[in-house]
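Technical note accompanying the year-one report. For the benefit of new consortium partners, we illustrate the data format agreed upon in the data management plan: each record pairs a sequence with a structure-token string. No post-processing was applied to the example shown here.
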Amino acid sequence: MSTAYLMENLKEELTCLICLDYFTSPVTTECGHSFCLVCLLRSWEEHNTPLSCPECWRTLEIPYFQLNERLGRVAGIGKQLRSQMLQSEGHQGSYERRLASTKMLSDDEQGVNDFSTQGHGINRRNLSNEAEKHHKEKLQETLNILRKKKNETQVIVTHEKERVILCKEETKTCKQVVVSEYAKMRQFLKEEEQLQLQLLEMEERENLKRLRYSEIKLTQQIRSLRKMIGQIESMCQNSIIESFEDVRGILERSKPLLLQCPEAITTELTLCHITGMREMLRKFSTDITLDPATANAYLVLSEDLKSVKCGGFRQQLPDNPERFDQCATVLGAQIFTCGRHYWEVEVGNKTEWEVGICKDSVSRKGNLPKPPGDLFSLIGLKIGDDYSLWVSSPLKGLHVREPVNKVGVFLDYESGHIAFYNVTDESLIYSFPPAFFQEALRPIFSPCLPNEGTNTGPLTICSLNDHV
């Protein structure tokens, strides 16, 4: 390996990464890399924050560095050695250059020695005027950088204080907007409430008018019937009928009465449409899945446990205690002991179905009616063109105008509230009287049995991300 090559390697090791020249008053950072003191300070001045090592870019929490006197002396020796080698090879032969190089080396050594510290056990020497001036310049340069950093930090602090005030003002404004918007909503809902009540009152007056008219009509009919009955009874009581003309006349007058068919009129009320109902209930959306361990052996569940229908044959399934053996029923996997929960079920065009909530302890065996309080369900039934809804238990019929295709089920465990909703037109179907729940509750589903090729469709638990 040549001397020139070794000299180049030595120069590389003794060179500052910033100025690419031999170290002058070198310092070493906490990450172990060395730079000229002036070069490092200038680098930090040019790059605002955060302070980092120019070689490895490690962030330095504080501008800490250690004076490296030995490295400075070695750099001076290396620089002198290189100068002498160049002279011997004829690249730099003048005596004046050698003196300049030697003087430069002496200056560097003097500067390095001047930075010796008590931390290394080296006593501080009297500094020459030249060295003192040099150090004061370095100190002033460092002081200027620190003052600049202080000013920059002060600007940021002032800005942060302004942001604190701005943040409070923005929050106050947002609170005012929230209060204002909810006030509008309350006013809107109050108007909607009044509109619904007025509509019901109008329908009540119309229904009462129809009922009174029917009552008057039926009362007149009763009077006519009573009068005709009296005349016929009187004629029948006579031992001898004096005139067949009289009999014929009575029979003729009774014909219209005989043709009359007294009927009770039906009254209707508008479905209880609740503005914003679904948006409100969706806040309590609960992901419901079916529990295969409870499904009747004739029921077929989808792979995602979101759909159930009645199959055409009995599956070979274990008759475990949780399984329904005679009812075409399956429970939801979720168990509720607190909180508010809402889910929706697509019933489609099925002619018979049942959805609802039951106690976790509900009887799974046999087909006996469930005791009151064990089951809160909604039953849909379609026979021909007639469609009806029923709630249980106890069983109670509901008036409906048209089939329900999607049912919403809501449970508020703490308040003992269970209600069913028509999702399509956002109306209330039925709300059970408040109950006191002490046991765990579970969703319950029954697609019911097929009926001569009909009612074969599934019950499907909807994803509330779907659109109505």
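Partners are asked to follow this layout when depositing records. Residues 91-128 have pLDDT under 50 and may be disordered.
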